[in-house]
Design goal:
The protein is mainly α. Helices cover about 75% and strands about 0% of the residues.
């Protein structure tokens, strides 16, 4: 077998095959971790769900924590992409833009409850994933603070106080979203409407 054939199989390069296997593992970890049924997430369970042997797990991740961090990063990327798209279509009004950011966040984590369970609940309980979860929420707080300064003015949302107010605002939204994950919780529309009212009131 030539080196070229060893690197390429059915038209897919070795690097692409590794990327595909990593994608399968991340998807499997997300499915198990976000199920909300108490299933214990293990390396073996991830491999079984991904239909890959354990050696391929170690090809992508040195240990389980790294796979879970990759899941949180994946969710963070989805939220980031959703907020970028929402802001692009929100126009210039600061309230509309802030509402668009919240709407994108809310619908990303409620339309697929697995994402909400992981980034709002599960990731907070693990030392390895907690910093990544906090990074996701800090990004939202920064966007909120930026639009709030435009709406309410720098006297209220100063460089010193703005980040704290934004963190409190995002933290409140997160708590409402945790309730929204329950069967009898508020709907996405209700969460967004209340968040918009709260954002307008912080002045």
């Amino acid at each position: 077998m030539t080196m070229a054939r060893a690197r390429t199989y059915r038209g897919i390069s070795a690097d692409d095959r590794r990327s595909l296997r990593r994608r399968q593992l991340v998807d499997a970890a997300l499915e198990l971790w976000g199920a909300g049924d108490g299933t214990r997430v293990t390396m073996t369970a991830i491999c079984q769900t991904a239909h890959l042997t354990e050696r391929y797990f170690y090809e992508s991740f040195p240990q389980l924590d790294h796979a879970l961090v990759a899941v949180v990063d994946e969710i963070g990327d989805r939220i980031q992409r959703a907020t970028v798209v929402a802001l692009a279509g929100a126009g210039a009004d600061p309230l509309d833009r802030a509402t668009a950011v919240v709407d994108a966040f809310v619908r990303t984590v409620l339309d697929d409850p697995r994402l909400g369970r992981i980034v709002l609940l599960e990731a907070a309980g693990l030392e390895a994933t907690r910093p990544r979860r906090e990074l996701v929420l800090r990004r939202l707080a920064r966007l909120t603070a930026r639009e709030a300064r435009r709406l309410h003015g720098p006297a209220t949302w100063s460089e010193a106080d703005g980040p704290l107010l934004a963190t409190m605002f995002v933290g409140g939204v997160v708590q409402v979203l945790v309730a929204a994950l329950e069967p009898d919780g508020p709907t996405a529309d209700e969460v967004v409407a209340v968040a918009a009212r709260a954002f307008r009131a912080i002045s």
